[in-house]
């Protein structure tokens, strides 16, 4: 599944698997953050399976959330300016890391892990972070002490592993800048989803446009209707697959409703049925050169 905002296309499922893996391995909160860092609503993210906030964090934020937000925003900006990971102790005394992801010198988002307790005693954290302003210090101490401890040396190793995952994300284009016109992404959507139900409505939703926009602009750009292009792509794919797969396998892989529908559409475009086309392929293969 893809998602997108005004500037990005993101392979959500693949990145979610990565965040789940890292989260499970180290029992920490992990996420990809990809929205506007200049607002307080910086929770537009793909989180790992330990995505909920620690009880300690929830308790701190009940009264001091504004200080947590200010601290995190400063570290967002520091990581952005340095163009490298920033591992730091946040306002409530836990360790966090933000690793900026740049595509063609444009900031695409941050890989993040956090809410990790260090070896420090709570009383040291209380003083360093001025948590004595909180009205439930005893409860803070209880929840802090219940958290698992990860050493600073291990956190540095985890940071290095996150850098490897960042390289994979960028190399495999699991995040892309949205630079091309919507028609480009319509074609990309079709080409990558031929086996799935596709129509003008789902395509329009993918590029955040109206169905009428898809209908008119696609034909103007490519001199064929969206439906014609979709059908042609499915038939082209089926011709390739028929070399090695059965007709039943092929119509399912190419998004046709059933074998009859596949045969009817294929013959209209190619001039012969899939069975005849496959037979011709086999005859050519068996004919001595």
UniProtKB/TrEMBL annotation:
Enumerate the spans annotated as HTH araC/xylS-type domain. 184-280
One of this protein's Pfam families, by short name? Answer: PocR
Coiled-coil parts of chain:
none
Fetch the SUPFAM superfamilies from UniProt. Answer: Homeodomain-like
| InterPro entries membership | Homeodomain-like_sf, HTH_AraC, PocR_dom, Tscrpt_reg_AraC-type_HTH
GO terms, molecular function: DNA-binding transcription factor activity; sequence-specific DNA binding
Instruction: Indicate whether Transcription appears among the record's keywords.
Output: yes
Q: What is this protein called?
A: HTH-type transcriptional activator RhaR
